[in-house]
C-alpha cells in the first residue's frame, strides 16, 4: 500500500513536471514556431515583400518625376528671365534670343511671339543637321498660326497655374535617328491688356538624352541607395507608348540596364508627358528577391525550431535524469535504513537473550557473542561506506599511502569474514601469492574495497555458492580478483554498476538490501591508488571483479577529487 502510494506520488510529480514543462516551454515555443511559420506562409502567398517593394518603387518614381519637373521648370524660369521685352524691335529681339542660345547650349530653339509677329532663332551650330533646319522652318510656319489662333486661350490657361508654363514633349527626327524634344512655352509681360506676348524654347534632344535624364536618374538611384542600401537599382526613361517587351529602347538609363523589363513604370504627367520612367533591380528581380528572402527565412525558422526542439529534448533528458537520481536517493535512504535495521535487530535479539541468562552452554554463548560481533562489524562497514561516500561527495576524502604487505592485508581481511562466508555455505577458495613486494596503499581503503566485493559476491549468489579470492602480480601490477558463481550481471549493466546508487534490475538484486554505493566506492578507492577496476560476468554463471593496483605509482597522499 505504502509502495503504491509512493509510486503514485512519483508518477504524479513526474506528470506535474511534464505538464509545467509543456505549458511553460513547449506550448509557447510551439506557438512561436507556428505563428512565425504561418506568417511566412502568408508573406509568401500574398507576396507582401514584392508589394512593399513595388510601393516603394512607385514612390521613388513619383519623387524622381517631381525632381525632374522642378529642375526643368527652374531652367525655364531662368531662360524666361533673360527674354527681351515684347516692345523691343525685331532686330533687338533676334540678338537677344541669339545671346540666350549662346549662353544656354542646352537649347535648340528660342522664340518670341507678339502682335508684331514670331521671332524664332535656332542654335547656329545645330543648324548643320538638316532635320533641325526643317524643324526650324516647320516651327516658323505652324507656331505663327498656332499662337495667333490659340495664343490668348493658352495664356489664360497658363495664368491659372502656379507656374505659368506649358510643356510639350514629343518625338522628332535627327540625323542620328529618332529623338525626343521638350518645348517650354511661357507668358511674357503683356505690353497692353489685349496684346499677347508668348515666349518659349526647345530643349536640345541630345542634352535631355545624354545629360538631363541620366543625371537625374543617377541622382535618384544614389539617393535611394544611400538611404536604404540593398540590391543595386537601375532606372530608365523611355517613350511611353513603347510596348514593354524585351526590346524596349530606353532613351536614357542610370547605369547598365541589362536584361529584362522594368518592375514598376510611371508615365510622366507634366513636363515630359509622352515619356515614362521605369525602375528595376540590377541583375535580379523583385520576384527572385522575394523568393530568396522567403526561403532564407524558412531556413532560419527551421534551424531555430530545431534548436528549440533540441533544447527541449535536452531539458527533458536532464530533468528525467535528475528525477531518476532523486528517486535513487530516496530508494537509497530506505535501503540504508533497512540495512541498518537488520544487524541492529540481531544484535539486540542476541544481547537480550544473553542478558536473560537463558543460554547455559559456553559454546552457545560464544556463538552469540560472535554473531553480535559480526553484525556490529557489518554495521560498521555499512556506516563506513556511507561516511566514505559523503566524504567523497564533499571532496574531503583523503587517503594515506603506506608501504604495505598486501598479501597479509588481504588475508587478514578475509580471515575476519571467513566464519560468515563458510556459515552461509560458501565454498571459499583463497589463492594469495605471498611473494609480493610491499605496495603503497591505504590499508583501510583497500580492506573496505575487498569487503565490498566479498559482500557483493555473498549477496548476489543463488544456489551456486562459491567465493574465490586471488591475489597475484602481473606486469608491474598487483591484481586482486574476487569471483563468484552467482547471478551475474547483464552486459548493459556492466558499465553502470560502478555509478553511485546504481543497482541492476535483476529481481534477486531487488530482493537483496543494498545501497548502490559499494562499487562506486571501490572504483573511487582503486582510482585514487592509480589503479582500475574491471568486471567480467556472464548472467547466470557468475562474476569476477578484478582490481589492479600499480606497484609504485601512487606513493603520495592523494586527496579524493
Ligand atoms: P549494492 O550491492 O548495495 O546494491 P553495489 O554498488 O555494491 O551496491 O553494487 C551495485 C550493483 O551491482 C548491485 O546492485 C548489483 O546489481 C550489481 N552487483 C555487484 N556485485 C555483483 C555480483 N558479485 N554479482 C552480481 N551482481 C553484482
Which properties best describe this structure?
binds adenosine-5'-diphosphate, 16 strands, five-stranded mixed β-sheet, 561 residues, 55% helix, 19% strand, disordered C terminus, five-stranded antiparallel β-sheet, alpha+beta, disordered N terminus
- The fraction of residues in strands falls at 15-25%
Total number of helical segments? 12
Task: Going across the biggest sheet, name each strand in turn.
Answer: 2-1-5-4-3
Ligand inventory: adenosine-5'-diphosphate
Main β-sheet: number of strands, strand sense, barrel status? 5 strands, antiparallel
Regarding quaternary structure, what we see is single chain
Please bin the fraction of helical residues: 40-55%
User: Uncertain regions: pLDDT < 50 for 5+ in a row?
Assistant: 1-8, 554-561
Put the structure in a nutshell.
The chain has 561 residues and is α+β, with helices and mostly antiparallel strands. Helices cover 55% and strands 19% of the residues. It has helices spanning 2-46, 48-82, 90-103, 130-159, 205-228, 286-355, 362-394, 406-423, 443-459, 491-494, 507-511, 518-528, and strands at 107-114, 117-122, 165-174, 177-187, 198-203, 233-239, 252-253, 264-267, 275-281, 402-404, 427-432, 439-441, 466-474, 477-484, 532-538, 542-550.
